[in-house]
Amino acid sequence: MxxxxxxxxxxxxxxxxxxxxxxxxxxxxxxxxxDAFGVRFEDDEAEQMAVLTVGEFxxxxxxxxxxxxxxxxxx
Length: 75
Fold this sequence. Notes:
The chain is mainly α. It is built from three helices and no strands.
């Protein structure tokens, strides 16, 4: 992804009012995060991500990573 991240912080919205990621870019971000961290997002979640801040998105990914580690430890 080739975006200027100048001025982007945890309070920046991912969608048009902030980082200005369009739905296709959000979907690509989700796929890259899935591949990098071994987490999964539902197909319809890309639209919901536009209203999250960078910090909220980071927390959601961290929670999924934690949930995956917890379920691996149980199994």
